[in-house]
Every structure is written in structure tokens, then in C-alpha cells.
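Notes to self after the call with IL:
- keep both proteins in one doc
- input above output, always
- annotate only the second one for now

Protein 1:
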Amino acid sequence: MSGPYEGLKVLDFTHVIAGPFCTRLLADLGAEVIKVESSSGDIMRELPIEYEQGMSTAFAQYNCGKRSIGLNLKSPEGLALAKELVGWADIVSENFSPGAMDRLGMDWDEIHRLNPRTVLLSLSLFGREGPYSKISGHGATAEAYSGLMSLTGQEGGPPSHFGTPLADMSAGVHALAALGAALYQRERTGEGSLVDISSFDCLFTMIDQAVGQAEFTGGAREYGRYGVKHPQTVPAGVLATGGGEYVTFSGVGDAAFAKLADAMDQPELAQDPRFAHIESRIENRLELYALIDKWGATFPDAASIIQTLADRGVPCARIRSVAENLDDPHLLFRGTLQPVDFGKAGSHLVQSAPYWISGSRIGPSSGPPHAGEHTDVVLQELLGKSPEDIAAIRSSGAAF
């Protein structure tokens, strides 16, 4: 089977995480992705763990299934080749600092002139337009601005980062969704469009209840910190067992809390005025969580507390490590982990686009490319260059 985006042609100028994650998902969905790299290559190639020269596990995660062409965009000849590839592409993607593509002579107007059907995807911290558009930085900048980071960490402690580059990852997923809409629009109008994605915007739209609470109360009601205990959907969070394992649980809502109280052999808690309703549980959450923590510590391990909670219908799970999931039967069955041939490094499991679409194959078609690995193939097959042309292009320094 082929992927649902089979035949879709993507010219990928992106680097690091946000853009490459989006185009990696496109590749998993069957698109042909040509990654344009300079002689220094994507900086992700330098990160741990390097399994061969110029190839890291971090780079592999975001670039499996792509082909790489090495172009010198600062040379007129290299830029001319890039513009020829725009004529080939359905999607052009970039995540340079705002204005960088314009300075190269590849602004939206020029790309639209070269190929009116091309969709230009532009990802950045704050978007191409707006009061913050000139601010530079990394994903953590957007995470800090969004307010989402202020909701993390323990009550009374500092905010914390997330367990993944959330700004970049969320921008990549939102970009994938926006591209689907842009391609559908192209089917109706025949025209390509500019898709402008801001990491800041993406994170802000993902905030759960805190925005509505602040808006409807004029900022009077604060959401609180969601560290190991949820501040609003009370009680829910993380429990430590006496043996040092951790379990996540949820007893939200009056009926669910009554089940939790029963599991604790303290059914009277469900009638206690301090805990009988959601607002009183929020107000008295520190007292309630102290009672729950004391109860959880009486169990020797996660399995025993999970059994007790599950018997009463209380949602719960042991908290796994990432390494534990590398042989998870569910992830393997659904193809969210798939084996990929890494050449000399052998076959290894990699994350894949987590979608099931009937009649389609979804997943990486190959390992990640070396920088410039497919330059000759791309020039010959996509642009029709002869061997003599390619030799001249290489000797000029326009490509490598």
C-alpha cells in the first residue's frame, strides 16, 4: 500500500525540530520530501547520540524517509537551482528567522510567481506578522511567553520545562493539519497559499481550562500549578507507593470521588463538607491530597494499588519509563514504533506518524539521509540535469 500523500512533492528548507518534524510526518504519510542542506548540514546531526559521522539519533528522529540535496543558497547558481525545485514542489517549507527567505530572494511573492500552485509553509516562534514577529530564540521562548510553562511545577516552586520540546512538536503537528486545509483549498481554487505557523500561537491554543477561567473571572481566579497534583480537577495526579513506584490516578467528579473514597476504606470522605463537591475539593485540595498520599504510601508497589483502584473503577496506571515502551506490543502493533534500516548501524525502531488510515501504509520508507546524499539523483531526476551539467554545478560550488 502507498501512503495517503503519495505523489505529494515537498521542498524542505527546514532545520532543527519544528519544521523537520512536520515534514517527517509528511514523509511518513507518503510524500516525497527533498531536504535542502548547506555544507554545514542541519545542526541536529551534531547532537547525541552519533551512530556514524554526521548522523545522530536526534537527527534521525526528524528526518527518516527524506532525501537530501546539498545547495549553496548564497551562490546565484545554487539559488537558481532552489528556484527550479520550487517549480517542482507542491509544498515549500521553511523555518528560518522571519525575513531570511525574503533576503534570499525567495519571499512568498517570488515563490507564488515561480509556482502559483505551491503552498509555502512558514514556521517560526511568533509568526511572520505581529508585534512579536522579530523576536528570536528557541522553542523555550515560546513556551515561556505562552503561559503554559507557568502552569507547570510544584505549588510554591519555580516553573519547569516539559519532557519534550513541546513548542516545536506542537507547531509541527499544527502545521501538518494546516497544510491539509491549504491543499484542500488549492483543490477548490487552483491556487497555492501561504501558511504561517507561530509556535507561540500553537501552545496558547493548547492550554486547557486556565484561559477560560482567567477570562471569565477577569483574572481573579488563578488556575494553579499542575505538578504532581492537579489544581482544578481534584483529586487527580501522581501517587508514590511505599516501595518507590509511581501511579497516576483520577477521581474527578462526585461519583468518581466516592469510588476513590471507598477504595481508601474512607467512604465518609465523600460526604465530608470539605470534599463533597468539586469547588470544596479544590478549596481544600491540600488536605485531601495529604490524605490520599498517606493512603498510597501504605502499598508496597504499583501493582497492588492499581488492583485496589481498578476494582472500584478508578482510572489509574503505573508511570512507565520511555525505555520500557521500546518493546511495547501495542505501539508495535499499531506501527507507532517501526523498524528502519540504518545501514552500518543496523535496524532500529523509530517513532512513526501515529495515524491509522484504511487502505494506506504509514511509516518511514527509509533511514535519514547523509547531507547531500541525493544531490545527483535530485538534479537528474527532478530537474533533468545531465551528468555534464551536474559536474559543472558541483565544480561551481553551487551544490555538493
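Protein 2 (the one to annotate):
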Amino acid sequence: MIPKEVLKKIRRIHITTSRMVSDVFSGQYQSVFKGRGMEFDEVREYLPGDEIRSIDWNVTARMGHPYIKKYVEERELTVMLVLDASMSARFGTTQQLKSQIAAELCSVLAFSAISNNDRVGLIIFTDTVEKFVPPRKGVRHVLRVIREALYFEPQHKGTNIAGALEYLNRVSKRRTITFLISDFFDAGFKHRLSITNKRHDVVAVAITDPAELSLVPVGLIRFYDPEANEYFGIDTGNQRIRREYTENAQKRIEERNKLLRSVGVDMIDVHTDKDYAKELLKFFKKRERRLA
């Protein structure tokens, strides 16, 4: 039996994100991801109004008058949500933790998919794959995806992006739209990401909290690293320490972005203190312009 407070939160996210999808993202999603895969249907005679670029010149030469290639759109796509549930995701200094933002992003993307009759699946990972929800259609299935994204309790603490991508390649034989949702506190996954992006259309959704970029000068603070299970102290009143912290954070972000660009993976840059809907819309519009 699911607790009432859990059902209440799932219902709130359901209402909020489904309204967001119907008002904003549904058309954007369709224009970006629909019609990208086309299957050859037949060759037929050219009719006034047909696109010149559709003419099959080989058949035209044989028949003596214009023929065009006709294609049909592959209507059904599969969207895979690959969700980082490591302990670093359970961090936040604003109104929501990174993990809560990630769950809402899963909801928006899942409802966008089913509004276009696509299938949605979920992989939750830490330093191992902990949960796999096979792709299906329908609101009931999406509500399960939201519930798992919100309340799944991982058994491990670390992060292994390469392992999650390897698992995706094993369970998804056909091409998918894959959203990799993580804070990307990991290394050594470039090769696996490159291979995966050749088989699937991978989009990285990077979630960052403002405290990971700079320190507020409030004196000596004791931090806990849940993935390493270690405590350490930082004197935030020290200007040099704050500057080095910011420089290291910027370097990490730049290296992450460079890595994603080098393997041709698009990125949605989400911050816990900003409206993620604007970043999603920016991504959809950027993709739409590129496909135009």
C-alpha cells in the first residue's frame, strides 16, 4: 500500500507536469523527435506540389518521366530515462534536492512521450543498475515511473555512468531517445557514452546546485561526502579557499561540457535554483532549429 502523502505528491507532480506538457512541451517534443526516423514505402509518379528533392532520379531515367520516393514516418519511439540515484543526487541548498528536480524532469519527459503515443522506460543507477522499468505506454505506466523516480531507495552510494549505459545497450536493441539525468560526478565514461550515442540519441541532463559552484562566506563548515562516507571541514571565511573552490568547480563544468561536445551529445543544463522548464524549452528550440 502506497502511503497517502506519497500518493499526494505523485498526484501534484502529475497535475503540474501534465499541464506543462499540454501547454508548452507537447508540440516542441513532436517537432524535435517525430519524423526523424523514416521508412521507405513506395515509388510513385511525380504530382504537382511534390518536393523536387524527393525525386528518384534512377527510376525517372528508366521510366522517362518523374517518379518520387514516398516515405512513411516511424510513429512509435521509445524514450529511456536513465536516472542517477547516487548519494550526491540527494543534495540541495534551495527549495528542492537535485533528486527531486530529477524526478520532475522524468515526469515532464515521460508525459511528453506518451502524449505522442511513445513508450517510456526507466533505468535507475548508482554504482550499479538498481532498477529497470521496461518501456510501455499509458498514464498508469508513467505514474509508476514517477513513483520509482521519487521514492526508490538505492542500496549503493556511488556513481557508474559507464555501467548504466552498458546496461542500456544490453536491454535496448532498437534505437531510443535516451535522457541521461545526472550531476555527472563521475569519470571514465567517455568511451561508453560515445558508443551509446551511436546506437541511441542520447541527451545529457546535467543538474547542479548553486553551492557546488561557489561558497558563501559563513565561517568554518563541516561537510559530509556520502559517496565516500567521509567528513571534512572548509573555512568558507577564507577568500583564497573560496576562490579555489569556484575555480575548481568551473574547471569541472568546462571539462564535463567539453566531454559531451566531443562525443556529440546534446546537454540540458539544469540548476536547482532556476526554472528547469526554460532550459527544456531552450533545448527543444535549439534542436528544432538544427533540424530545419
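Annotation: The chain has a mean pLDDT of 87. Strands lie at 38-45, 67-73, 78-84, 119-125, 129-136, 177-182, 201-208, 220-225, 230-235, 266-271.
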